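fyi for ur records
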Amino acid sequence: MWIRDEIEQKKTTTSRRKWKRLMFLLLLCGIGLWFYLFNKDEDTHDAPPIFDIVTRKDLIKSIDAEGRVKGNDTMVLSFPLSDKLIQVNVAPWDTVSKGDVLAKIDPRNYNLALRRNTTAVQQAQQSAASLRQPLKSQEIASLQEQIKLQELALSQVKIANSQRIVQAKNAVELAQANLEQLLKDLQDVVADNDTALVQNNNDIQITNAQNSLQITNSDILASVEQIMREIDILLWLTDLNKNSNDSYEDAFSAKDITLRTKSKIDRYAIHNVLEEAKGWLTPEQSLVVLQKTIELVATVQDMIENSVTNVTLSTVQISSWATTYGLHRSTLLGKKNQLVQAMDALNILESSVASALDTVDDRQKDAIDALEWQIRTAKITYEKALADLELAQEEAPISLQSSQSQLDKARLDAQIVQKPLSSAEEAIQQLQIKNAQIGAEEATYQLEKTVLRATEDWVVLTVDNVVWEYPSPQFITMAIDANKYVEVLIEEEEVNNIYVWQEVRMTLDARDDITVLGEVYYVSSVWQRDLNDIVQYQILIKLTDTNDITLRSEMTINAEFVVEDTLATLVIPTEYLVKQDDSYFVTTGEGELIEVSIGMTNDEEVEIVQWLSEGESILLPNDDDG
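which gave:
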């Protein structure tokens, strides 16, 4: 009995084990099926690819900088006519009103021209009246003789023009043949040279000497500008025309007005030279400016020593300032010696290089120099012959037309005086009178230009050439509050991308929705450092279109310098571009990776030069594309 129970128990235990194994297998199959379906669903639900379209647009590469609006510009006035100066009514720092007479030139020549033209009007009127009187036979014969003379003159002009053009053409052909032969001779001489020319000059030493001269020159200009700023402040303190409420007026003033006036005139003369040079002078020019600055410092030192003060400034302070400007003068004299020594060192190196070049083949060098000299002379002769031919061809019809006009006038005069005047003839006479009157009006206009008047309310800065007979092109300089410009600072990594006449687009913090246009008109060659010790250069921008915005000094402006631009070109975002080695690729909308040629690029977009068309779709590249 117990054996049967044991057998039944074993059957039950075996059945349970089979069910456990079956359930475990089913669980494994379920897990495998779940992984399969999950991965299959993941494959069929990938994120859709990102597309973009090739478009055509303007691509701009630019440099951004922040600056300020500046004002208080100057204007130069002079006479439109050239004649002797007889009267000057203004001096530096005078205030003038609109219409004030500033100066006059000698009006006698223009008065004479006015009298002549007035006489011409009267003669034309008398001639018109005399033509209505009957002529005598002698007068008619005289008119006919004039016609014959004008006909003969016309034929002579035709012959002379023809001969002149033929001679000019022959001269051109001869000069051209001579120039071509000389060029061939030079090629033969150069080709026959089998000996290499030896140059013993040390390029590194010359470069170092040039750099040293440039550094010395820049240091001198910086010192001059620093001392000029100190002189500006001192001259402002000594200005007797300041507001009476200014406490400095009673504190310190120049006793010797002549020294103060000379200091101001010399100071503006130096400033004008620096402004005209746009911040950079050659070493030779710097030497002249340096000498003028040394003289100006000496004058200022004399002015300080001849100054008066009240209890606010002691004589000890005046003496200290005088000592300071004495040190300035000593410093400038030392820098002058440095500049002269740097120039002499460069000249000595260049002389040594020139001496080394003398060791080359003298025979060939002399032959080449002689031929080059002959070629230069031949080129000048050839260009002059071409110019003479062109001038002869241009003047021929003019002289012919002039002679023909005189003949036509003689014939017309004969017809007019021998018969009653018609309406057309009457109109001709009136035209002659009108032309004479126009001449008189022109003479009157010229006479008015002998007086130079102020067109606005200005302050006189400088008056040049008041001791000379004739006014200079920059006769009087006026201070005005107009022609505002923008000043920005550009870091050294980007300054080489800035050039004069470069287009600049700007917005103001006050009106960032409107664009103001300008162009670069000054790039400083002298560097300066900001608070973070970063080298920067001053850029001045001339405003060309303010878009009717009222600008005020010291307004903040955001400037965009257009470094490079291309108009209406094919453009794609740079992130769609794939680089492999030195080639560039783009994935088309069909998934094909094709090579393209690129052009200009900025931080966001790139120009496509070849192998894509406007409107094509492209895909954002995946990791497999590189």
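Residues 362-417 form the longest helix (56 residues). thats all i got for now
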